[in-house]
Design brief:
This protein is mostly beta strands. The chain has 2 helices and 13 strands.
Length: 202
């Protein structure tokens, strides 16, 4: 995917969430991709961390790599990782619209990456993450700048170094924003993520 301009999340006051734009910031144009999972999934899907199956017109994903484990040959470590199903669809300013249902899961997200961008881990640019906390029965949406945030190579290395973790946390201030959201577990809902220049609206 083509690189987006830097994603800047500007807080109005001390760590206050940015103002939510009342109207769409993007207008739908040419349809670049669609899949209703009514048959064989489109061949453009990329199985990154493949714990998915298609059933009853839906793509079902479950995180199975929940903790670091040794590989079968014992020579490396298989890292914990979310289930990931991706697309190689070139885009810049865009609208991503998906139907989601948290049916036992606590989180789902739409992430934009640029595999050619090497200054961030695996080309991570930004993501919009929908969460539901079963204990508090509260939902939220978090917008995360990964390109210049926690996935930036230098910052990520600092986060993995216990001696520099606190220093790295300071660099992450303002690189994400969390908003309350009416997430209904077990029900289908529509998630729309709009990207225009350095802005994102969910």
């Amino acid at each position: 995917m083509r690189s987006l301009l830097p994603l800047l999340l500007i807080a109005a006051a001390a760590f206050a969430a940015p103002t939510i734009p009342a109207d769409s910031i993007a207008k739908k144009g040419e349809l670049l991709f669609a899949d209703d999972f009514s048959g064989t999934p489109d061949k453009r899907w990329v199985r990154v961390v493949d714990t998915f199956k298609v059933a009853d017109g839906a793509l079902l994903g479950t995180q199975t790599r929940v903790k670091d484990e040794p590989s079968k040959d014992g020579k490396s470590v298989i890292k914990a990782h979310a289930a990931v199903y991706g697309l190689e669809v070139p885009t810049k300013d865009s609208v991503v619209e998906v139907r989601i249902k948290l049916d036992g899961a606590s989180m789902v997200d739409v992430e934009l990456d640029d595999r050619k961008y090497t200054a961030a881990h695996y080309g991570h640019i930004c993501r919009a993450q929908v969460r539901y906390d079963a204990k508090t029965k509260k939902g939220s949406v978090q917008i995360i700048d990964e390109r210049d945030g926690g996935m930036k190579n230098e910052t990520r290395a600092m986060l993995q170094d216990p001696a520099r973790k606190a220093e790295a946390q300071k660099l992450l201030v303002g690189r994400s924003a969390t908003f309350p959201a009416d997430v209904k577990p077990g029900e289908w809902q529509t998630l729309v993520v709009e990207i225009v220049d350095d802005q994102i609206r969910v």
